[in-house]
Design goal:
Layout lengths: L7 E7 L11 E7 L3 H10 L6 E4 L5 E3 L4 E7 L7 E4 L2 E5 L4 H10 L2 E2 L11 H7 L2 E2 L2 E2 L4 E8 L4 E4 L5 E3 L2 E3 L4 E9 L1 E2 L2 H18 L19 H7 L6 E2 L2 E3 L7 E3 L5 H19 L8 E3 L4
Parallel strand pairs: 2-5, 3-5, 4-20
Antiparallel strand pairs: 1-2, 6-7, 7-15, 8-16, 9-10, 11-12, 11-15, 13-14, 17-18, 18-19
């Protein structure tokens, strides 16, 4: 069906192997491209009505147990070119956020340290306007490269996108493949020390040793989802193998036996209980996709 592919194509690939929650059914097609040009070639040969899911490290994502009836584009381990020229960092979407932050710091550039605590890829950070510690990635973006369903590669400017809290509207049928960030000159050692501090704080406050997907809910205006969940007494709330973390209430962890259905049901239960207790309907930050088994 496909011609001149240089990447790796798999059929009926279990997505539980590729998500940080370690759950999810199979993808009909799973493609790990060799390069942006190879990806463009692959996309140009897909059926026009084929559903497409982009997958980095699989955090911030819940794939239902029935799997994904379409094609998954996997960027983790590929699309990982990273370059710095002056104060401008250029990265492809498969670069890990932690690597990006450390590379910038080692080049005596500041502004990207907060990305060290985000457990995902650059592409995922761009797609959701990832942020932490009062910083957001789109405040640094100066240029974006996209590809569309026809395999056309475009260079775009930030004002081509509508950016808000944890959300970015992309021109229809296009996906991020690379971007440029403009950073500031700074002290190498202090920036590396800040990254070390952020990672230590994350390890202390979050369940990094258990399968989870990062923060489950967006913070409502003027408050924190974790505080609302904890103050309602919902830490430890469990459905099947999924539990609200005792370490951080805005995390749901998998004890190794959870299904995606367990996790989704627990998300809904937490929403109901917080709304009943505090009158606030929490909005999931994680993306829920796929078919119910």
């Amino acid at each position: 069906m496909f011609d001149n592919l240089k990447g790796e194509l798999k059929l009926n690939e279990p997505l539980s192997k590729h998500t940080s929650w370690r759950v999810g059914g199979i993808a009909q097609r799973f493609y790990r491209p060799d390069s942006i040009e190879d990806l463009a070639n692959f996309l140009s040969q897909l059926p026009v009505d084929e559903p497409v899911l982009w997958l980095g490290l699989g955090s911030n994502l819940l794939v239902r147990d029935g799997g994904f009836a379409g094609t998954v584009i996997a960027t983790s381990g590929t699309l990982k070119d990273l370059d710095i020229e002056g104060k401008v960092l250029t990265a492809e979407v498969g670069v890990y956020c932690g690597k990006l932050a450390k590379t910038a710091a080692k080049s005596s550039l500041t502004g990207a340290a907060f990305l060290a605590g985000i457990p995902g890829t650059f592409g995922g950070a761009l797609a959701m306007n990832a942020g932490a510690h009062k910083s957001e990635i789109w405040t640094l973006v100066t240029q974006i490269t996209t590809v569309d369903r026809s395999g056309v590669i475009r260079i775009r400017e930030p004002n081509d996108f509508k950016v808000s809290y944890r959300h970015v509207e992309v021109p229809a049928g296009e996906w991020f493949v690379a971007a440029k960030l403009e950073l500031e000159s700074g002290d190498r050692e202090s920036e590396l020390a800040e990254i070390k501090t952020l990672l230590k704080r994350r390890n202390v406050s979050q369940p990094t040793n258990q399968p989870c997907a990062g923060s489950v809910f967006r913070n409502p205006d003027g408050d924190f989802s974790g505080r609302l969940i904890e103050s309602g007494g919902f830490k430890g709330l469990t459905i099947g193998g999924a539990s609200v973390s005792e370490k951080h209430a805005n995390f749901i962890v998998n004890d190794g036996t959870a299904t995606a259905a367990d996790i989704e049901a627990l998300i809904q239960l937490v929403q109901q209980k917080v709304e009943q207790t505090h009158g606030i309907k929490l909005t999931p930050e994680v993306h829920i996709i796929g078919e119910v088994a």
